[in-house]
Amino acid sequence: MYCRKAKLRLPLKSILEEYKCGKARLLSMLEDSEDPVAKTVQPTIKTGPGSSTAKWWSKAEGKEKRDMVINEIRINEDSRRVQKAVQQPQQGQWTNWDNALQKSITWNEIWHMAPLRISFLIRSVYDLLPSNANLGRYTWRHNRVLQELAAIISTAKGETTLPNTNALIFTTEGGAKSWHERPVRTTNQIKCLLDGCDDWDVSADLPEWDSHPSIIKATRLRPNIVIHSASTQLIMVELTVPYENRMEEAHIYKREKYMNLTKELENAGYKAVVMPVEVCARGFVGSSVYDLLTKHSICGNKRTKALKLLAEIAENSSRWIWSRRNERFLHKD
Hints:
Elements: E1 8-9, H1 15-31, H2 36-40, H3 62-86, E2 103-104, H4 107-111, H5 115-125, H6 139-154, E3 168-171, E4 178-182, E5 201-204, H7 214-217, E6 225-229, E7 233-240, H8 247-257, H9 259-267, E8 271-278, H10 287-294, H11 300-323
Parallel strand pairs: 1-2, 7-8
Antiparallel strand pairs: 3-4, 5-6, 6-7
Helix pairs in contact: 1-3, 6-11
């Protein structure tokens, strides 16, 4: 729970780690002291077994040197925690969640959390729930996440134009043509999938949303979200809410599922793209969602808030389902 590389990063510190860092800081301060008495006396500080210092910090001086030593100690301690977690087949399953983004919890968030939520979050991540059979089944949770994801994507429709930049004047050789005051894309801007069209429309496989275009209705498949334009461009987003250790498997399955449909659309003259995304049952968002938002011009704080909101919806839904796991009226739908 103290590990900085853990998928659930809590604002907790290890007493052993802070003890080692304190001893290393004290030793470094005594060695670098300007006091002539401290210089003549070689301090002997027992740091206990397993402590280590880096060998490449010898050229540093003063505080910089101390910070390098302390940072190396923290890295070594964190690596030991990861090694210990890998050896635990149940509580250490988070080490296999390669495609899940790390979730950091601050003290301020903990103070505002209900005790049940804190308990569920920690126990579900470390697989300590009495029964987790109810975490990965329900269409209700999937549709809640899908509803929010569709709303987030729909806000990106109006952000497809290029930003106003300093106009460049380009004249062809011989002065035949020139372009004035045309917005120019700078090199540090990310290419958006919605660029080049201003007639995008978003449809979702939900009752309150617009239905999919006719080219999709003619098939047996129903993508969760379809972003389409009159210029024969289609972006199909397929959401899955799996267990965290099945993210990669779900991603590959969804991509292969829509492979034939993508080819059919391309043969019909459409420019089709399929983007499988995963928001997991315990509230961890896959890197595929990060890429989806980025490619739709949802970046910075807006992207961070969107990822956090999607994670909270999945987590809250799973907690609600699990807390009512023994109620007979609760069905899979």
